[in-house]
UniProtKB/TrEMBL annotation:
Keywords: Metal-binding, Molybdenum, Oxidoreductase
Protein name as catalogued: Sulfite oxidase
Stored Gene3D superfamilies: 2.60.40.650, Oxidoreductase, molybdopterin-binding domain (3.90.420.10)
CDD domains: SO_family_Moco_dimer
Domain Oxidoreductase molybdopterin-binding: 111-274
Gene Ontology terms describing biological process: sulfur compound metabolic process
Cofactor(s) this protein requires: Mo-molybdopterin
Record domain Moybdenum cofactor oxidoreductase dimerisation: where: 297-408
GO MF term list: heme binding; molybdenum ion binding; molybdopterin cofactor binding; sulfite oxidase activity
Pfam families attached to this UniProt entry: Mo-co_dimer, Oxidored_molyb
Taxonomic path: Bacteria, Pseudomonadati, Pseudomonadota, Betaproteobacteria, Burkholderiales
Length: 417
């Protein structure tokens, strides 16, 4: 309407012929333009609103998740919204992210959980054990940050291909199961000279594909065995199928991909598996270069923290005393402290940890109370682990966009009024 009025009023200043011409086109514009405008208005108002409420619907296999907490990127990549992270340490199953490299197995595999079998190789007495048998061998409970290797990919200055995760491809989860070291002891120990622990996922390989090209099979250094579990429980309940039930390999301190869901084989091996997901996938390759075995594999997580609140997506922050809240973890080491900056990293103040300390592999929630006057702020957080390793300002960019723990990339710009 504004546009129409402006155009039709303009010709009054010109000569009559021009005025006629413009009036005519103004009428045409008004007719076409208004129709166009109303379409735009309709789309503009209805579409985003519908998106905000529903987004992409939850895929059927995780229909039990909390839709209000999840960003559905694709049916195999679901992210926890920053605003959904609570402040009481544990991430509930309904809010935990999902990442599947292959379609999840059929629910029939959890019909009789205790009957699930896992093959153990590379030990003195190679064996096939049922979940029921595993439950009799040993028990340990570990709280651990489960974080996709690509969490933070979308925050790298250069956009790497792959799901543009922000911070929500991570959660803090409690796992219960048998320590791998107890299992190995029960089977006579690891065969001499083995270098890696290799876990294989229990998915069916789609017909016609070379198994090695798609199977989820990962090798980690043998030392990772020390705190690893074969877990059947998550946050106090049997592990949901979507999160790897009935049995999952948990490798504390290692990125998501190394934590094999529905594990069907655990082998101690001389070499890393030659499955593509290990050989060329999940490698830290220089931008533009393909992955190959000469490049570092994505294994241990780096010390990392981020702020969950206040966040720009929640809108303008009211001036005054403000609680800045977030999470901090050390990857493979416990955290010692975390600092917050409200001036883009020029100065830092120590934040306070809140809630119980669930051990070296868990994250800790933190809070800092600051008085904010109206203005714009770049807020950031930076964790230090017990060995004195400080969260890096920048992470090394790589083709896959893995391991982004940069405090600068995770800084948030907020407006206070
Ligand atoms: N068997 C199997 N294990 C797997 C995967 C998979 O596709 N199949 N995906 C891996 C990746 S890349 C990640 S980030 C985590 C995701 O775990 P979640 O879906 O329980 O959050 O599982 C890992 N383990
Ligand atoms: Mo992942």
């Amino acid at each position: 309407m504004t546009k129409h009025n402006r155009i039709s009023s303009e010709p009054t200043l010109g000569n009559p012929s021009r005025r006629h011409l413009l009036t005519g086109s103004a009428v045409a514009l008004a007719a076409g333009g208004l129709a166009g405008l109303s379409r735009t208005t309709f789309a503009g108002e209805v579409e985003p609103a519908a998106k905000a409420v529903a987004g992409k619907p939850l895929p059927a296999y995780v229909a039990w998740k909390d839709p209000a907490s999840m960003i559905v990127h694709t049916s195999s990549t679901l992210e926890t919204k920053r605003s959904a992270f609570g402040t009481s340490v544990i991430t509930p199953a309904e809010q935990l992210y999902i990442r599947n490299n292959l379609p999840a197995p059929d629910a029939s595999i959890i019909a009789d959980r205790d009957a699930w079998e896992v093959r153990i190789e590379g030990v003195a007495k190679p064996s096939t054990l049922s979940l029921k048998q595993l439950k009799g061998i040993g028990l340990e409970t570990t709280a651990m940050v489960l974080q996709c290797s690509g969490n933070g990919r979308g925050l790298f200055p250069t956009k790497a291909s792959g799901t543009a995760w922000a911070v929500g491809a991570a959660g803090c989860v409690v796992w219960s199961g048998v320590p791998v070291r107890d299992l190995v002891a029960a089977l006579g120990g690891v065969t001499d000279g083995m270098v890696y622990m290799t876990g294989s996922g229990g998915e069916k390989i789609p017909e016609g594909l070379d198994p090695k090209s798609v199977m989820v099979e990962r090798s980690v250094p043998l030392k990772a065995m020390g705190d690893a579990l074969l877990a059947w429980e998550m946050n106090g309940a049997p592990i949901p199928l979507a999160h790897g039930g009935p049995l999952r390999l948990i490798v504390p301190g290692y990125t998501g991909v190394n934590n094999i869901k529905y594990i069907k084989r655990l082998a101690f091996t001389l070499e890393q598996t030659d499955a593509a997901i290990q050989k060329t996938g999940y490698r830290l390759s220089p931008p533009g270069q393909k992955g190959d075995p000469s490049q570092p594999s994505v294994w241990e997580m780096a010390a990392k923290s981020w702020i969950n609140s206040p966040a720009p997506e929640a809108g303008v922050v009211a001036a005054g005393q403000t609680l800045i809240k977030g999470v901090a973890f050390g990857g493979v080491n416990a955290v010692k402290g975390v600092e917050v900056s409200i001036d883009g990293g020029e100065s830092w103040q120590a934040a306070k940890f809140v809630g119980p300390d669930l051990g070296r592999y868990a994250w800790r929630q933190f809070v800092l109370s600051v008085k904010l006057a109206p203005g714009s702020y770049t807020i950031a957080s930076r964790v230090t682990d017990v060995l004195g390793n400080q969260q890096a300002e920048r992470s090394v960019e790589n083709t896959g966009g893995y391991n982004n723990a940069s405090w600068r990339d995770h800084a948030l710009k907020i407006t206070v009024a």
